[in-house]
Amino acid sequence: MNKALAALAVLAVAALIVASAADSTTAADREIRTAAGQLTGIDWAGSKIVVRWLSQDDNTFHDAAITVPDDAKIRKGAEEINFSELEISEDVTVKYYEEPDGTATLINLSVTNPD
Questions:
Q1: Domain range holding 68?
Q2: Of 1, 29, 47, 59, whose CB count within 10 A is highest?
């Protein structure tokens, strides 16, 4: 029985190590994607945006729902702006990464048609 408990303890520690390694993955460790398109949705309360872009691979429009963390860089022309200053229909270029569960997280956004 002691051997069984020891084996379970080893398995529990191994599972914690694997879970910890998965949680410590940073943006630099993930594949970074870039999309140029139009801002079609903004959820200020939920800190999310939706960007519609045309895929060159299949010549169809795709919508990317992207979470906007506090440390994301947002620019309009040469000026850094706040998330709250974004407007629907602005042309944007976004750089983001996808989580293993399919959710996307913004790294930076540039408004490409600043007034």
A1: 29-111
A2: 47
